[in-house]
Amino acid sequence: MEQTADIALIGLAVMGQNLIMNMNDHGYTVVAYNRTTAKVDEFLEDAAKGRTTILGAHSIEEMIKLLKRPRKIMLMVKAGKPVDEFIETLLPYLEPGDLIIDGGNSHFPDTIRRTHYLESKGLLFIGTGVSGGEEGARFGPSMMPGGSVKAWPLVKDIFQAICAKTPDGEPCCEWVGNDGAGHYVKMTHNGIEYGDMQLICEAYQLMKEGAGLTNEEMHEVFTEWNKGELDSYLIEITRDILGYKDPANGEQTLDVILDTAGQKGTGKWTSVSSLDLGIPVTLIGEAVYARCLSAMKEGRVEASKIISGPNFKFEGDKKAFVEDIRQALLASKIISYAQGFMLLSEAAKEYKWDLNFGEIAMMWREGCIIRSAFLGKIKAAYEKNPKLSNLLLDEYFTEVIERCQPAWRRAVSKAVEAGVPVPAFSTALSFFDGYRSARLPANLLQAQRDYFGAHTYERVDQPRGKFFHTNWTGKGGNVSSSTYTV
Ligand code: 2AM
Q1: Pairing of strands 30-33, 72-75
Q2: Which of 186, 268, 379, 414 does the annotation list as catalytic?
Q3: Which residues pair with 54 in a beta bridge?
Q4: What letter does residue 100 receive in the DSSP assignment?
Q5: Which pTM was predicted?
Q6: What is the structure's pLDDT at 475?
Q7: How many CA atoms lie within 13 A of 3 on its CB side?
Q8: Comparing C-alpha atoms, which of 101, 81, 188, 113 is closest to residue 146?
């Protein structure tokens, strides 16, 4: 058998198949393999029919024999155990310098572990985020590769050929960093996606319940929003969803969909990581919890019969209210991205990744679910100042958020008055008010901690690092606590 194939891909579910087609469109010879080998034949006879440079393998041996050296093998299988199992299966066939790529949604600690494991055997490993769903995989995904830095030159051409491109023609794929960096950035992308979706859902409910807009009216609103600062894939599909009627009966499909959200866990991972690293990524957290609350359908239905909300009747200018909601959405979105980049910044320190925030924004600019014009502004902010400590301090974003502030506050106040839940809008506003406060009530918190646990406090009129204890009651004594935490 001739060694003609540039890369092998294992896992012929729709993402895997589409990536193979995409690679082949760009001139690469690809070997396809799948645990259930019947799928290899199905693929060759269906989507890949007539393509002589897509080869099928019915065993790992056959696949290996077809590959040029150093071998590149991409896994598009279910995250978790299947990835480890395939790695073990492949190991006996590989030679130093060969590369395994995991393109699934793996949790970044697994990717860190696998990179070190394979490097210890003289092999190379990449864990790459691939975003954009089926269509992205087929015609241009956003790709976020990290792992063994020596592996990047081996796949750079392939990845940058098949990925999405920004309006300026730059590839939405760059080297992210060592070991788990690529999957961490993909995880954060998914968390931000949770936040963006929740913000849009709150805008929808506020227009619907607060001001009584119909789906058709909201379809028009989203059509307009998509032409301006909010121009993005998620606004675009929301516009289309609001305008969709079942061709069979004219029914508005959106209205018959059960209001319980599912989740696969990447939003939760982002929130857990934010808690581990001590970074207030509050909006994604609220977005995850909003899905959890939505899933408590039976409990909510029961409560709705017993507990009543305010008697609210919308009065005033609906058009102006809709504009307030648009600005609240934009301002909250800025907060969410600022929080996401704060998380990335802390993760870079913790895990020793040399992250380039401008390039990360560029990778998300096209191809993925959160793609938007807005990400072009983030990329510009970090290009202008790669050391920018917080997105909110960039001139452009400071200006937008200042401009939106009055409308944002009006929209949140109106939601509170109407009894419409807006956890993401309101946590964004609270974060904003906290972040711009030179002084927070944590002085009282420290006093409480010192009162009940002698945890000590620092003083505003003394150097940092000097600790004081007060005998608040006159009974506790003057001994401070340094050996335990309550
Ligand atoms: P299958 O077609 O043989 O089920 C998406 O589910 C992809 O992951 C499919 O290619 C699927 O292979 C593969 N996959 C899922 N679980 C797997 C496992 N435990 N071992 C190997 N491949 C698995």
Answers
A1: unpaired
A2: 186
A3: 30
A4: E
A5: 0.96
A6: 86
A7: 9
A8: 101
- Check residue 1 and give its pLDDT: 64
The one catalytic residue in 170, 193, 286, 359 is 193
Radius of gyration of the chain (CA): 26
- Identify which of 19, 78, 134 to mutate to test ligand 1's pocket (most ligand atoms within 8 A of the CB): 78
User: Which positions of the chain have pLDDT values less than 50?
Assistant: 483-486
In angstroms, the CA 156 to CA 453 distance is 56
How far is Cα 402 from Cα 397, in angstroms, rounded to an integer?
A: 8
Q: Which pLDDT value is given to residue 477?
A: 75
Question: Atom 8 in ligand 1: which residue has the minimum CA distance?
Answer: 77
Interval 76-121: pLDDT, tens: 999 999 999 999 999 999 999 999 999 999 999 999 999 999 999 9
Specify the pLDDT at position 486: 40
List the alpha helices (DSSP H) in 140-281: 152-162, 181-205, 211, 215-225, 233-242, 266-277
> What is the distance in A from the centroid of ligand 1 to the CA of 222?
39
**pLDDT value at position 482?**
65
- Distance, C-alpha 169 to centroid of its chain: 23
Whose structure tokens read 């690679």? 23
Alpha-carbon torsion, ordered 218, 224, 226, 231, to 10 deg: -130
Kind plus residue range of the DSSP H or E element containing 31? strand 30-33
DSSP string, 265-298: SHHHHHHHHHHHHT---HHHHHHHHHHHHHH-HH
User: Residue 375 carries which DSSP code?
Assistant: H
CB 32 within 8 A of CB 5: no
186 is catalytic: yes
| Residue among 114, 30, 20 at smallest CA distance from 76 | 20
